[in-house]
Amino acid sequence: MRLLEGKTVLVTGGSTGIGRAAAIGAARHGANVAINYASSDDKATSCVAEIEALGQKAIAIKGDVADPTTAGDFVKHAVAEFGRIDVMVSNAGICPFHAFLDMPVETVDRTFKVNLHGAYYMVQAATRQMVEQGEGGAIVAVSSISALVGGEFQTHYTPTKAGVHSLMQSAAIALGKHNIRCNSVLPGTILTEINKADLANEEKRRSMESRTPLGRLGEPEDMVGPIVFLASEMAAYVTGAALLVDGGMFVNLQ
Q1: Could you tell me the residue range of the domain that residue 55 belongs to?
Q2: What is the CATH number of the domain that holds 186?
Q3: Looking at 43, 157, 184, 232, which residue is catalytic?
Q4: Is 144 part of the annotated catalytic residue set?
Q5: Is 157 labeled as catalytic in the residue annotation?
Q6: Which residues form the Ketoreductase domain (predicted)?
């Protein structure tokens, strides 16, 4: 079953990690895809190639989501190429791990601008286009288990992910009258570039695995099903929801 047949899907942070998996996964379900990426030209090109090999169309647009003008530019290019937008997957994010007491101002500001402000502007730009089209749409924002729990070296990161979760709740109310659904996914520990250095510590990695009832850390591909579901008509009556995708880590208090 191709759940996104004929749809146009936009993915931010689409050259690597969860964004890349979501972009390719959307194509497997019949979507044409536009990806935004910040710096990885070769990886963006290879992502487009993988999508095209599946028989779908794809473009990659470079831009920093922390810049408010990037959102409008991304939407404009996608509409010029595909004629419309049906789904926005707001995924771009960073997490430069750092202790709280000596956290640099620049690190805090950059994390908020990319993770929260970037999501806000991308969602706003996409939904403006959807409202103009008049046929509804779907937003899926990649929040995090960190929206619900703290982290010693993530005091700058966890508030942004709580903010993304909250943004989807408020946007669901604001946009329901336009038949635009807004939901978030909350990944647990997924093996991506964002935590590669942190999990290079084998002891820490084994500890994280032991806390996960399913016995392993997540892969980017584990996020594809939940994202595609929320983007598709199978979730036609789902909005303002948050779906944990964490192998059970959140509920394991023992």
Answers
A1: 8-245
A2: 3.40.50.720
A3: 157
A4: yes
A5: yes
A6: 7-193
